Amino acid sequence: MNAPHPASQPASRAWQTSFETEAWQSYLAALKRHWSGPLYRQVVTEAQACKAQPPAELEQAMREHASYRLYAWLERRLQQMKWSGRWGFATEVARQRPQLAPLLQQADALSNLYLDPELELPHYVTETETHQQPGGLWQDPVNAYALAWYTTGLSFALSNPDELVDFYAQRIAERCEQIGLAPHSVLDQGCTAGRSTRAIKRELPEAEVYGCDVCEGSLRLGALRTIEENTPVTLIQCAVESLSFPDASLDVVASHWLWHELPPQAIRELILEARRVLRPGGLLIAYDMFEPVGADIGRWLLSGYAARNNEPYAHTLLSFDWRAELARAGFIDIQARYGLPQDPGPDIPKSLPGQRLHPMTFISAVRKGRAF
Question: Smallest Cα–Cα separation from 246: which of 200, 196, 187?
């Protein structure tokens, strides 16, 4: 019997769970811990015995290993099972659509939400179901609830999701202090439902903090949660290649887990648009998988993740020369700093971690010119 618990959550968390759903998702989480721990370590040991061949050759060699075949199968199927099937997040949210859709409409009354019904979604958003989420975030606004539910568990860095975004916000504040910048206005790009945006506001309470994304549903959900958490940020529907801000109007343009979702040309346009909206002396900072650890094996693991999790641009980020692109766009003081909450860096590790996670790096640069 799939009896839901009574709804007692605020509008942004109004999905109803059940004993069966929680049991199923707990089972998948336990299986994923085996995948990311003992099985991953066995695969790495066997890959190291292949004498660090280039990733394409390593892939062919490792397909002969039963451990890798199981690892690859689980990487794909565990994600599918979390979303789909009888007790998947997307399945449960689709069942509850009649109750959830009206709640998202409540965001229309909020003054901190700016939607653009004429916005043409970028092709890289609509061409794939990123993260294997059925329908992505763009086909139905209610899908935002499925992602919000999904992200109540451990993050890709094996930490509490709020811990990770708090770490992101702290590093932004530290980099601002390092360059002598007291930010009055901060934009968080690709903010989804604004978890990272709210973290920035908590870290920099005196600043005006904005979040932008292209998906209406996530922004609606984020606007509701902003009110529920009493964290005043403004959420705007726009693409990072065409920001809704005047020239030289922002002190910081930041992003968390965004660049690997973008094709190279979109990243170039993001950089140029950031230069346009930043004041001279302003900061561009991004947190993503810029520098994989573990040499060829790390690149091979990331390429496999990209293919199996519907992340078509995660591997192209590895070959993107972001230093050259930032310099060409007129940025200076270009830096990279590795960091996770459980391993704050700053140096990039030379060896792979003992558990499968995504090593993350902050890159940052300063807009050339004298600060106002």
Answer: 187
**Tens digits of per-residue pLDDT, 44-65?**
999 999 976 889 999 999 999 9
Total tally of structural domains belonging to the chain = 1
Q: How far apart are CA 146 and CA 148, in angstroms?
A: 5
Secondary structure string (H, E, C) spanning 128-191: CCHHHCCCCCCCCCCHHHHHHHHCCCCCCCCCCHHHHHHHHHHHHHHHHHHCCCCCCEEEEECC
Task: Return d(Cα 195, Cα 293) in angstroms, integer.
Answer: 27
Three-state DSSP at 112 gives coil
| Cα 125 from Cα 136, distance rounded (Å) | 8
Query: Count of residues for the chain?
Result: 372
Q: What is the CATH number of the domain that holds 309?
A: 3.40.50.150
Burial class from Cβ neighbours inside 10 Å (0-12, 13-18, 19+) for residue 302 reads: buried
CA angle 176, 179, 185 (to 5 degrees): 40
**Does residue 188 belong to any structural domain of this protein?**
yes
32 in any annotated domain? no
Helices and strands (DSSP H and E) totals, the chain = 15, 8
Q: Which domain range does residue 241 map to?
A: 161-367
3-state SS, residue 256: strand
* Cis peptide bond upstream of 346, omega within 30: yes
Contact indicator for 128, 158 with CB cutoff of 8 Å: no
Distance (Å, rounded) from C-alpha 287 to C-alpha 361? 6
- Position of tokens 């899908």? 143
Does the residue 170 lie in any domain? Answer: yes
Residue 141 lies inside a defined structural domain of this protein? no
pLDDT in tens, 159-199: 577 889 999 999 999 999 999 999 999 999 999 999 999 99
What is the DSSP secondary-structure string of 211-234? EEES-HHHHHHHHHHHHHTT---E
**E strand or H helix that includes residue 275:** helix 264-277
Nearest to 121 by CA among 110, 106, 137: 137
Considering the entire predicted model, what is its pTM? 0.93
